[in-house]
Amino acid sequence: MAQVTIRDVRTILTAPSGSRLVVVKVETSEAGLYGLGCATFTQRPRAVKTAVEEYLRPLLIGREADRIEDIWQSCYHNSYWRNGPVLNNALSGVDMALWDIKAKRAGMPLYQLLGGKCREAAAVYRHADGRDPREVEDRVRAFLEQGCQYVRAQMGGYGGRGWRTWSKEEAARYRRPGLPGEPSDEPVRLPPEGALPGEYYDPRSYLLSVEGLFDHLRSQLGFDVQLLHDVHERLSPIDAVGLAKALEPYKLYFLEDPLAPEDLEWLQMIRAQTTTPIAMGELFNHPREWTPLIASRLIDFMRMHISQMGGITPARKVAAFGELFGVRTAWHGPGDVSPVGHAANLHLDLVCPNFGVQEFSGFTEAEQEVFPGCPEVRAGYLYPNDLPGLGVDMDEAKAARYPGHEGPDSWTLTRRPDGSPARP
Ligand SMILES: [Mg+2]
């Protein structure tokens, strides 16, 4: 095979469905041969663009495109200080693009280069959200009708939008006698005068609502459907322990991010108290955040965001590491991952024996227009196309129609009932 070198590296910013996406394009010395990689750090897109174009590009021009591991290691260490979200995303954009190029050169879909399929498609979990348990139930049923087997159930997003607590009437309708907490007479409360704007949530009313939600869903839907729930690090550690324990009778597939990365020592207490399966890692970017949790059997599913940890190269290593300890993969797959990133998740899902489930938020029409070749969901499974590489392309002219990468992100401005800032 003739040697192929890197001719140019650049970033493309686009937001076809509102989420700000960052894609890296690596062009080679061979006419028409290029690769795409996801580098989406939706809260700081322009910082990633600078890292790619000002710092990685000069290191990459003229390098052999096939030397992925060498390029990953040398770019990773070049900054000396490493493992931050900006630099890891930048590196991921390059890394995925190089895997895309290598598989295109081989004339194979990437999963072939990674060892070949263990499964035909990846089971996905979808997001069912509602204002009250009945609305959540309706949305879960809608996914079941489409053939989904895994559904994440949330009430009010991550338990906060509008800080809704149940009225007495709702509580009488949905609460099983003996659940903790008293229903409120005032379904909506207000922050103190002069409180700053933000997305408010009340950890206590959230905590008290979740057990009733799952009590309702299991009583109406039975135990065949795999239900999941995301705490989104919105509870104090001891309340997270209590919730994991309280949800045990409802047999969740997993409880997602019960703790913030700053509170990981509490995982041992969750483990000692309950068999509710635990998924962690959406916010991790450093190997020392996940290796001790896997080696100590403190988690059941790893949920890292593949671009956040540096791309396919580190992801396949941690997946293999997890396999040795019985920990399954459930890569982060929200709307702020580009279709290129979703394809990278999927190629790994197909080849990893310890795959668990794939989070999937669906693609809008605009996204499918900008990114031809998006993976497709059919009856609860995500399928790749069989084109060489990652299988997803990008129409740059259409991408340019969806700008909007200026300024900070707003949904992460979150606050507690007294107006104090909180984790999103
Ligand atoms: Mg999550």
List the topology elements.
Blueprint: E1 6-14, E2 21-28, E3 34-38, H1 45-60, H2 68-78, H3 85-106, H4 110-113, E4 122-130, H5 133-145, E5 150-155, H6 168-174, E6 199-200, H7 203-221, E7 226-230, H8 237-246, E8 254-256, H9 267-273, E9 278-280, H10 287-295, E10 301-302, H11 312-324, E11 328-329, H12 339-351, E12 358-359, H13 365-370, E13 376-378, E14 381-383, H14 396-399, E15 414-415, E16 421-422
Parallel strand pairs: 4-5, 4-12, 5-7, 6-15, 7-8, 8-9, 9-10, 10-11
Antiparallel strand pairs: 1-2, 2-3, 4-14, 13-14, 15-16
Helix pairs in contact: 1-3, 2-3, 5-7, 8-9
The structure holds magnesium ion.
Magnesium ion binds next to loops.
Describe the structure concisely.
The chain is built from 14 helices and 16 strands.
Overview of this structure, please?
The chain is of the alpha/beta class and 424 residues long. It has a domain at 113-386: Enolase-like C-terminal domain (TIM Barrel). The protein contains 14 helices and 16 strands. The strands form three sheets. Strands 4, 5, 7, 8, 9, 10, 11, 12, 13 and 14 form a ten-stranded mixed beta sheet that branches. A three-stranded antiparallel beta sheet has the order 1-2-3. A three-stranded mixed beta sheet has the order 6-15-16, with no helix packed on it. Helix 1 (45-60) crosses helix 3 (85-106). The longest helix is centred in the first third of the chain and has 22 residues, at 85-106. Residues 230, 232, 256-257, 282 line the site of magnesium ion.
